[in-house]
Write a structure and sequence with these properties.
The chain has 71 residues and is mainly α. It contains two helices and no strands. The relative contact order is 0.05.
């Protein structure tokens, strides 16, 4: 049994499978994009994050490695 025809067939099948998966994922992406509702958001909705809160740092504290804050 020669290994060269086996490996060349395996490479050909892997290449064809990669191309098929790429085309199908691109098609699924385009279908999702077309199905997404297009609506205008209010200025409040644009400013307000729905899952995250904006971080505002408070007082700067020493980490203990720079020697600041030791007395």
């Amino acid at each position: 049994m020669d290994l060269i025809p086996f490996f060349s067939t395996a490479i050909l099948i892997a290449t064809i499978a990669s191309i098929v998966l790429a085309v199908s994922s691109y098609t699924a992406y385009k279908l999702r994009e077309r199905r997404r509702p297009n609506r205008d958001f209010s200025s409040r909705e644009l400013r307000e994050a729905s899952f995250f809160q904006r971080y505002s740092p408070g007082e700067k504290r020493s980490t203990g490695t720079d020697g600041a804050g030791r007395e």
